[in-house]
Amino acid sequence: MKSESLKKKILSFDLDMTLIDDRTNTIPQSALDAIDRVRDWYYIVISTGRDLTLEANQFALEQVRPDACVHSNGTQIHIGKERIYLRLFEKPLVKRLLDFAMEHQLCVCSVIDNVQYTTSRKQMEPLQHILAGAAAPAWGTAKELLEKPVQTLGLAGTDEDAAMLRAAFPEVKVTPVIPDMWCDIMEPEVSKAFGMKKLLEHYNLSMQDVIAFGDSMNDYELLAAAGFSVAMGNADPKLKQIADMVTDDIDKDGIAKALAILTA
After folding, report:
1. Tens digit of pLDDT per residue, the chain (264 long)?
2. C-alpha dihedral over 61, 64, 69, 72, to 10 degrees?
3. What pTM does this model have?
4. φ, ψ for residue 107, nearest 5 deg
5. What DSSP string describes 49-63?
């Protein structure tokens, strides 16, 4: 086993459709094997919109065994089991977003402590198997969410729904993750890059030391800022345009193929 001091760079991986194939809710074994082969030389970091403290996401931690996690789109950071950063939405903004969603029949939601709080359970239910897999959370209401600490919000809906929310709330980002199905709702300055910069302070490293993998638009800021960026073959075309490398699709050993080249 190599010394921890040999780790001078970070390998950062998004989860959904980068490491986790959402169609099967599994991580390709080729990706796990490739990560294991290089973990003595690189800090392994998961950078995701998911809240990795939730029961539904524990399988990813158990399989990937990351050194650190930049999760909830950069509003929560863990090194090992220690949380080193947490950022919450201001409650007045949450209330205005929820009120608007209920008035216009939009599905705005957040999962906290394995409870899915939503303005529309009917609209959210079809996405539960994608977002939570077999560990589906219990259900809660928007009213109950107002009493909770909210790190992230999401919009389950169409691109038209997202455009409506953007027009009404220019003070937030409504970022597509699954086209015509799911968007992350974030404060303008918050992103995976925002969270990564805070993590880098603890490792005494810079963005130039980060190799970042991703597939969707909530990866854009991180891939744009990283020293080297890899877009999956199944990535959003806009992400491919800024990436230093485009690898194969998630179900065609994209992670393993890229790491074989980068770590040769």
Report:
1. 344 568 999 999 999 999 999 889 899 999 999 999 999 999 999 999 999 998 889 999 999 999 999 999 999 999 999 999 999 999 999 999 999 999 999 999 998 888 989 999 998 888 776 665 555 678 999 999 999 999 989 999 999 999 999 999 999 999 998 889 999 999 999 999 999 999 999 999 999 999 999 999 999 999 999 999 999 999 999 999 999 999 999 999 999 999 999 998
2. -60
3. 0.88
4. -105, 95
5. SS-TTSGGGHHHHHH
